[in-house]
From TrEMBL:
InterPro entries listed in its UniProt record: ATPase_NBD, ROK, ROK_cs
Protein family (similarity comment): Belongs to the ROK (NagC/XylR) family.
Coiled coil (UniProt feature): none
Protein name as catalogued: ROK family protein
Domain of life, per lineage: Bacteria
Amino acid sequence: MPTLGIDLGGTFVRAAVVDAKGALISSAKAAVMDRTPEGVVETIAQAATEAVKTAGGVKVDGCGVGAAGQIHKDSGVISVAPNLGWRNVPLGEMLKTRLGYGVKVVNDLSAAAWGELHAGAGRGAQDMLVAYVGSGVGSAIIAGGQLVNGGGGVAGELGHIKVVPGGRRCGCGEHGCLEAYAGGHNLIAQTKELLASGNSRILESLVEDNPDRITPLTLETAADMGDPGAKEIYSRAAGFLAVAVANQVTMLNPARLLLGGGVLMHCPGIRLRVLEGVQAYASRTSREGLLITDAELGDDSGIIGAALLAA
Ligand SMILES: [Zn+2]
């Protein structure tokens, strides 16, 4: 029987009806206007109703939600969701009451990894590491065909390993995390800081006072053109990412490494540095037979994975 998949972001909710093989039957999107838990539950219910209607009113059996944040694996309580400003919200229970069927809430990256494992670039893998660099940095670990959750459900938080103890402040509230240097939001923040310093002619000429041009790719271009400040930020970020992913390969010895997220997909130089880093720094035995591949499902991976996890 099909299930519902929900992708809960800070600005939009997407809902989809997904069949048992992971194919999308229908989908719907709704803007998050009211960020209170009650408001978000209503928005999810609207999008879910719309998706079921578009699918011809099919019967669905269960609902999976992928949400950015730290989620208690059994209770469906969202401990921390920074983009919604939530702490300890029992989303699973609230949605179950509203929708009338079983609800499973998981971290968005776990959902994406599960989607890729069953319906995308991870098909057939038993041991896989999924590394995403988008606005944030994250990873998910599949071992023996199962998601590794960790004792508290927050295993695989690649973005929050420390690369500079006591360094830049991270969105998680701690200092010196990988994400604070290499996440897309923070690449943009560091680019803005460099522009504000007035010491970066090449970057200034590329941006031309147009804030839309302040992107990780512009930073990469400025670094390639020899802008010293851009080069410093860019090389540091790419270098940290390369070592971090390579070390994870050494630790976990995955058969497959799946790369995804906007920064890795749109900044070819950073992607290349990560690939070279795995070759250069992961232990030789850990990368023997390692297959490196790109995510296939794009923005649908999380919604498909959440639906399949609920099946
Ligand atoms: Zn952090």
